[in-house]
C-alpha cells in the first residue's frame, strides 16, 4: 500500500499524496513541482521517512499557479502574486483565489511554425494575410523562436480573423475595428473588476474572510463569466440596433429637409 493510500483512511484524516500522485492529479510534472517548491511557491512537503507527502493545500496552490500561468503571467509575476498569499493559506481560500483568476478564455495558446499555421487555417496563408491575422489579435509572431514561428491565440480567434480576411473589406478596416473593440472592452473589464473589488471582495476581506462565505463567493464568481459575457453580447446587440435606428431616422430627417 502506498504512503498516500495509507494516509487517506476512513478516519477522516487528510489525504496525502506522493509527488508522483500530485503530478498526476494536477497535470504538473514532478520536475516542475520540485522547481516550484525550491522557489518557495509551494510549502515544503511533509516527510514520512524519506518520502515527501503533499496535502490539499499543496494541490490548491499548484492549481492556482496553473491558473496564473494560463493568464500569461511570467514566473516573476507569479512570484509577486503569491507573495500576497501566505504558504499557510487554507485550500478553501486558495480555491476562491483561483475562482477569481480562472482565465475567461478556455483556449490554450500554441506555438506553431508556418506549416502548422497553414494546417490550422486550412489553407496556405500569404505573408500579408499572416500580418493581418496578427493585427486582428489571432496570433503573435515569435521572431526569437524562428522566422516563421507564431503563437496562435486559439482556434476561435483564428476562425474569426479568417472570416474577416474573406469578407472582402479592406484589412485596415478590420484592424481599426479590432482596435476599437480592444479599447472599449479593456475599459469595460477594468471598470467591472473595480466594481467587484470594491463591492464584493474588499467587504469580504474587511469582515476577516469568514469561512462560510468562501464557498458562496467561489460559486458566485464561477457564474459571473457566462452572466457577464451574455450581458455584454446582449447590450452590444441592443446598442448596434439603436445606432442603426438613429442613423436611419437621421437620414430620413435630412432627406425630408431637402425635399422641403
Describe the secondary structure blueprint for this structure.
Elements: H1 3-7, H2 19-26, H3 30-39, E1 46-48, E2 51-53, H4 56-70, H5 75-82, H6 91-101, E3 110-112, H7 114-121, H8 127-135, E4 139-141, E5 150-152, H9 155-166, H10 171-206, H11 211-259
Antiparallel strand pairs: 1-2, 3-5, 4-5
Structure overview:
- With 260 residues, the chain is mostly helical.
- Helix content is 66%, strand content 6%.
- The chain is built from 11 helices and 5 strands; from the N terminus they run αααββαααβααββααα.
- It has a 3-stranded antiparallel β-sheet with strand order 3-5-4. It has a two-stranded antiparallel ribbon with strand order 1-2.
- It is flat and about 95 Å long.
- Residues 1-11 have low confidence and may be disordered.
Basic shape: flat
Give the helix/strand class. mainly alpha
Q: How many E strands?
A: 5
Sheet with the most strands: spatial strand order: 3-5-4
What is the rounded distance between the termini? 94 Å
Major sheet: size, sense and barrel closure? 3 strands, antiparallel
Order of helices and strands: HHHEEHHHEHHEEHHH
Number of helices: 11
Strand content: 5-15%
> What do the pLDDT scores average to?
85
Low-pLDDT sequence parts: 1-11
Bin the helical content. 55-70%
Tell me the Rg in angstroms: 25 Å
Amino acid at each position: 500500500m502506498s504512503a498516500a493510500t495509507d494516509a487517506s483512511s476512513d478516519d477522516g484524516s487528510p489525504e496525502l499524496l506522493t509527488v508522483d500522485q500530485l503530478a498526476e492529479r494536477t497535470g504538473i510534472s514532478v520536475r516542475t513541482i520540485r522547481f516550484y517548491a525550491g522557489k518557495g511557491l509551494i510549502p515544503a512537503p511533509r516527510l514520512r521517512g524519506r518520502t515527501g507527502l503533499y496535502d490539499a493545500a499543496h494541490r490548491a496552490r499548484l492549481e492556482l499557479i496553473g491558473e496564473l500561468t494560463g493568464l500569461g503571467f511570467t514566473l516573476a509575476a507569479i512570484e509577486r502574486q503569491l507573495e500576497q498569499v501566505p504558504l499557510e493559506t487554507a485550500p478553501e481560500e486558495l480555491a476562491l483565489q483561483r475562482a477569481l483568476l480562472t482565465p475567461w478564455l478556455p483556449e490554450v495558446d500554441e506555438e506553431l511554425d508556418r506549416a502548422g499555421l497553414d494546417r490550422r487555417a486550412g489553407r496556405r496563408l500569404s505573408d500579408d494575410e499572416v500580418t493581418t491575422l496578427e493585427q486582428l489579435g489571432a496570433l503573435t509572431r515569435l521572431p526569437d523562436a524562428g522566422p516563421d514561428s507564431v503563437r496562435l491565440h486559439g482556434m476561435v480567434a483564428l476562425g474569426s480573423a479568417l472570416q474577416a480576411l474573406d469578407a472582402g473589406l479592406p484589412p485596415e478596416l478590420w484592424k481599426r475595428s479590432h482596435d476599437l473593440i480592444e479599447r472599449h472592452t479593456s475599459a469595460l473589464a477594468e471598470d467591472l473588476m473595480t466594481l467587484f473589488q470594491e463591492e464584493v471582495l474588499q467587504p469580504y476581506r474587511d469582515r476577516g474572510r469568514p469561512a462560510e462565505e468562501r464557498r458562496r463567493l467561489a460559486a458566485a464568481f464561477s457564474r459571473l463569466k457566462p452572466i457577464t459575457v451574455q450581458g455584454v453580447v446582449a447590450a452590444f446587440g441592443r446598442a448596434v440596433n439603436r445606432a442603426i435606428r438613429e442613423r436611419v431616422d437621421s437620414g430620413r430627417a435630412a432627406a425630408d429637409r431637402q425635399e422641403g
